[in-house]
Write a structure and sequence with these properties.
Strand content of chain A: 25-35%
Number of strands of chain A: 5
Oligomer: heterodimer
Number of helices of chain A: 2
Radius of gyration of chain A: 12 Å
Distance between the termini of chain B: 39 Å
Distance between the termini of chain A: 38 Å
Strand content of chain B: 35-45%
Radius of gyration of chain B: 16 Å
Largest sheet of chain A: 5 strands, mixed
Shape of chain B: elongated
Number of helices of chain B: 2
Helix content of chain A: 10-25%
Largest sheet of chain B: 5 strands, antiparallel
Chain lengths: ~80, ~140
């Protein structure tokens, strides 16, 4: 399935880009994150990253579908 | 009730001036300081995921209004490159009495820091730059 991933902050630095379009056969967003973590060497595990689809946070069990666009959100620290 | 993200210096505004039920207004300014955990900081860079930041920030203000019975609340967060002393975030709340205004303002800034997708990268005096709260060794 073709999907689009947006990386924020430290994840964008580690991936060397802020957007990536890719093919994946992962069934859930959790599996997809683990794949991307291996590929880019992310230091953060799934437990400390959140994921959003269409500007709403979703669970890692959310299914991966053709054309999905998601945002990976490392721990925040504004203020 | 208004949460905003801006790239420009934060311009604060009078809060709830027309609401005559208001007896207390509390404002908080968060500024860029020169030391973090013992290291000298030169500047800060904030980035955000804007669509979600605005949504989550607005949700926090709505929750605060319910929870503390506030009559009005507003917050502005600046992003981009900030210098020492610059205002990074501003929160203002208005209520009938001071108790809920102080508590509500404190709650809002704590929730903003915990939940809104905004990140800061510190630029240290020794030239190193680090995203805070990320995967730091």
């Amino acid at each position: 399935m073709k999907i689009e991933v947006l990386y924020c902050a430290v994840l964008a630095d580690e991936a060397g880009r802020s957007v990536e379009r890719l093919e994946s056969s992962a069934a859930t967003l959790g599996e997809l994150y683990d794949e991307l973590r291996l590929r880019h060497g992310f230091r953060l595990s799934r437990a400390s990253v959140r994921v959003a689809v269409q500007d709403d946070f979703v669970d890692w069990s959310h299914p991966v579908r053709e054309g999905l666009s998601l945002v990976l959100i490392p721990p925040v620290n504004g203020g | 009730m208004d949460f905003r993200i801006t790239k420009d210096p934060i311009q604060t505004e009078p809060v709830a001036r027309a609401l005559h039920a208001v007896g207390a207004v509390v404002c908080f300014e968060g500024r860029v300081r020169s030391l973090n955990e013992g290291r000298a900081v030169d500047a800060l860079e904030y980035s955000c995921y804007e669509a979600l930041a605005v949504k989550e920030g607005t949700r926090i203000l709505e929750e605060a209004r319910e929870r503390f019975g506030l009559l009005e609340c507003q917050a502005i967060h600046r992003i981009g490159q900030l210098q020492l002393g610059d205002m990074a975030v501003w929160v203002a709340v208005a209520s009938g009495h001071r108790g809920e205004a102080f508590e509500g303002c404190r709650w809002i800034i704590d929730e903003l820091k915990r939940r809104v997708p905004i990140w800061k990268k510190e630029h240290y005096a020794d030239g190193e730059k680090t995203w805070l709260g990320g995967a730091q060794p």
